[in-house]
Amino acid sequence: MSIARASIDRSLITWILMLTCLLGGIWGFATIGRLEDPAFTIKNAIVITQYPGASAEQVAREVSEPIESEIQKMGEIDFITSSNKPGVSRISVNIESTYDGSELPAIWTKLRNRVEDATRNLPSEAGRPIVNDTFGDVFGVFYAFTAPGFSDAEVHEISEYLRRELLAVEGVADVAVAGLPSEAIYVNARTSIITNLGVSPDAIAGALSQADTRTPAGSFRQNGQDIRIQAPVGSDTVDEIANLTIGVGGDVIDLLDFAEVERARVEEPTEIIRFQGKEAFTLGVAGKSDLNIVDVGKRVDARLGELMRDVPAGVELHPIYQQHLVVDEASNDFLLNLAMSVTIVVLVLAVFMGWRSAVVVGSTLLLTVVGTVFLMAIFGIEMERISLGALIIAMGMLVDNAIVVAEGMQGDMAAGKPSHDAAEDVASKTQIPLLGATVIGIMAFAGIGLSPDATGEFLFSLFAVIGISLLLSWVLAITATPLLGHYFFKVGSGEGHDPYAGPLFRAYRAVLSGALRVRYLVILALIGVTVVCYMGFAQVKQQFFPDSNTPLFYVHYKLPQGASIHRVSEDMAQVEAWLAERDDVVSVATFIGGGATRFMLTYAPEEALPTYGHLIIRTETLEQIPPLRADVEQFGRTALPEGEFRTERLAFGPGGGAPIEARFSGPDADVLRQLAQEAEEVMLGASDRLVDLRTNWRERELTLVPRFADERAKAAGVARDDLAQALQFGTDGVQVGVYREQDRLIPIIMRADSAGGDGAEHLSDLPVYSAAAQAYIPVAQITDGFGWEAQNTFLVRRDRVPTISVQAGVPAGENAASVFGQLRGAVEAMELPEGYALEWGGEYESSTEAQTALGKQLPVSLLIMVLISVLLFGKIRQPVIIWLLVPMSVNGVVIGLLGTGLPFSFTALLGLLSLSGMLIKNGIVLVEEIDLVRAEGVPFRQAVLDASTSRLRPVVLAAATTILGMIPLLWDAFFASMAVTIMGGLGFASVLTLVAAPVFYFSFFPKERKADAAASA
């Protein structure tokens, strides 16, 4: 008994299957995890090492080099980059994309061991390296809090209270706080008094460092019990610190006699955050990876609502990004798109096949979709942008199977055949071809879904969902569709019934008959159109991932190296004031000194630099972004000419960085800067469509260098370290201890009363303490003055080699790939000195890596697809006929994309793969039908015409329902290119299936044509 017949005879089992899909889908939709983007692992860790007092070159040579050398021994490393600034080494470790998230913990442990081994080779003055392997954590519920009028201590207390309470919310994994004001206890020493008194800096520092220490005081035994002795409580208020006494030469001196003690904000903070121009701090909430972010976000919102009633009045909460609302909206939009697509399918089927077929096929389609959601929930596949898109992509193929079975069954029943026999007859002819075609359709996406790189991980759910949905559609097509057809289709009398006697079928048969007569002209025409379209494909704009449909965009601003963070803050305040007057701006979040907390998986925060300013600007709609972006760029570049001012759209998918980037590597920093300057000139000469041309090394920075007089210093008993400490004492100050306030550790900084002023004139008069002479000596006595030097203060290395990157953007609306094509040859023609190399980064590198990884998988997928098609027929010519159609599938794609002006993005590539699967599937069913009709003894030419005519309605309906079902996606930024690709391509593919496939078939069997002609003569 066939499966289709059994589905009617044993209808209870079929009903159980259908109800399982329906009720399971409802359960799955209610419980399935929801995310904005697929969870792909950011295989990156950061190693930070402090090396106070060292220049950027010394940091690179003495700290980064030994650590990088040790890390590079790991076999899992893809590449290593380091940025070296005065006093700080920041090493970014990137793991090969072939390792998945489950392997990373072991890799990070191995990394820590390597870094620990490298520590032995670091200078004694260097701090202990800190490995941060949580760099890729995403805090998708991101809020700013403003608290005007509150003291810094109160702001810290409020933030800690909110963080502590939010960590207790079910499903919350972590809460990140940023932007809190940094405070210090400043001890401003009067240099004239300490010089006269001869108070040693070490004596002052020693007293301050012990002001609030935690020292064990021992214990004693009494009556068989150990009793701990509590150490004396330290100076835990600013007043108590000010009242400290210091012993000098047998005398006791009060700290207040020669210094003022104050609690104040750090004068050069590491970061400043504002929201709508008001000082703010941010809280980012990360949900646990296996939970529904919508539910977690709602619980966080509810808890915040309760907490805001308890915090002091005046504290305000402002959302910057709420991933759970974005995901919830995306899910609702998907349901709407799905409902529209199913409705369109049902209406089209009702018009062309009658309402009974519409109900049967529409019900099967709905069961397939909800059943897929059920299986997604079982297999732990979250509902996110890619998996939802996969359901839309699969929609065109999901309906095919049901249409073929329903159309064949309805025709047989109209001819008088009972439903059981009709189901068995149709299924026996189509179930294996449909299964083979379904598997081929799945394999078309295997290369992407199984690609080992970040793009493959990002798009794995696409392959999984398409595989599940297509296989389920086949199962339901040979079970649920026959049963529903049994209930809805009527058995006709069969007298004089010709299902293909209508005018549409007669017209198609006449056209096809004519095409067979002039088959060689048809083939030449198809080849000609294909060649023209492939030539036209070069005119289609290329894009890796499209811009996001979230109404956000960024401003990046950088002043030259050495600029104060306060100057950046003032410049950003001008932009904030300008934006505040715009009606199209909803909110502006300002980050100075570094990027924001990673609030999206695809958001890559910039490295912390005091010269960097960053704005996150939200608008009401996407349509408002282009004009606002153009206006803010014009304002920023005009009002702030000294800085680099650029904007950036939020994009989907993994990637990030400059759209165009050329990396030059080699041993000498000066040569690299010359190459970078030459490359900038070459790029500008090759293309006039470049903006924001820059290098990642930034500018050289002016540095003041004391000329140490060795002989005089040696005679005075002063070492170089003594001079350095004195200069730090006279400028930034020296941290000598910490002040404890609850869980906060506030630094105690000792400095000269002249510190903080403009200019360097006072430095020569600073006193330097000589331990040998036990007296202070002026800086001027042990130096030959000061000199200015332009130094590299931001050096980048890649795989241990100094590497400078020339980066550029393209104007809004321009295509990076086409601009890159203009300048690539000119840059590669540059003559590089021996030992220097050029590599391309940016969007070209990202797309090339993705396509390379895809290219490694596609041959296997294509081989499997070809083998399946050969095994289906057990012959060679039929599969060749089908595969000849595939290259022509690009024709409609080119016409559609050029007509709409949309780029060929990565999602369009997915649409092209989907299109290829549909085309092969239709081709298999058509060619198989021709073989079946021929097997019945029908003359060759008539068999081609009869079989093709019988496939007209399924092919046209499948194409029409798919094309019309894509309409809702035309307004989705992520899927628009894919929708046009499928719509334009499938329209042309239908012609290929209905005309080209029969013509090729007719041409590939010359013996049968001759025998047919002889028999009819």
Question: Any overview of this molecule?
Answer:
The chain is α+β, with helices and mostly antiparallel strands. 51% of the residues lie in helices and 19% in strands. Among the domains are: 1-31 and 354-490, Multidrug efflux transporter AcrB transmembrane fold; 43-135, Multidrug efflux transporter AcrB pore domain (Alpha-Beta Plaits, 2-Layer Sandwich), CATH 3.30.70; 200-257 and 701-792, Multidrug efflux transporter AcrB TolC docking domain, DN and DC subdomains (2-Layer Sandwich), CATH 3.30.2090.10; 502-539 and 875-1016, Up-down Bundle (Multidrug efflux transporter AcrB transmembrane fold), CATH 1.20.1640.10. The strands form seven sheets. Strands 1, 2, 3, 4, 20, 21, 28, 29 and 30 form a nine-stranded antiparallel beta sheet that branches. Strands 5, 6, 13, 14, 15, 16, 17, 18 and 19 form a nine-stranded antiparallel beta sheet that branches. Strand 23 and strand 24 form a beta hairpin. Helix 19 (519-537) crosses helix 28 (890-900). The radius of gyration is 36 Å and the shape is elongated.
Indicate the topology:
Layout: H1 3-9, H2 11-31, E1 44-50, H3 56-71, E2 77-85, E3 88-95, H4 104-119, E4 130-132, E5 141-146, H5 152-167, E6 172-178, E7 183-189, H6 191-197, H7 201-209, E8 219-222, E9 225-228, H8 238-242, E10 245-248, E11 251-254, E12 259-265, E13 272-275, E14 278-287, H9 293-310, E15 316-322, H10 323-353, H11 355-379, H12 385-414, H13 419-443, H14 446-449, H15 454-458, H16 460-477, H17 480-488, H18 503-517, H19 519-537, E16 552-558, H20 565-580, E17 585-592, E18 612-619, H21 625-639, E19 644-649, E20 660-665, H22 669-686, E21 691-695, E22 701-708, H23 710-716, H24 720-729, E23 734-741, E24 744-752, E25 767-770, E26 775-778, E27 783-791, E28 795-798, E29 801-809, H25 816-828, E30 837-840, H26 842-873, H27 877-885, H28 890-900, H29 906-935, H30 940-965, H31 976-1003, H32 1006-1016
Parallel strand pairs: 7-24
Antiparallel strand pairs: 1-3, 1-4, 2-3, 2-28, 5-14, 5-15, 6-14, 7-12, 8-9, 10-11, 13-14, 13-17, 16-18, 16-19, 17-18, 20-29, 20-30, 21-29, 22-27, 23-24, 25-26, 28-29
Pfam families: ACR_tran
Protein name: Multidrug transporter AcrB
GO molecular function, one term: xenobiotic transmembrane transporter activity
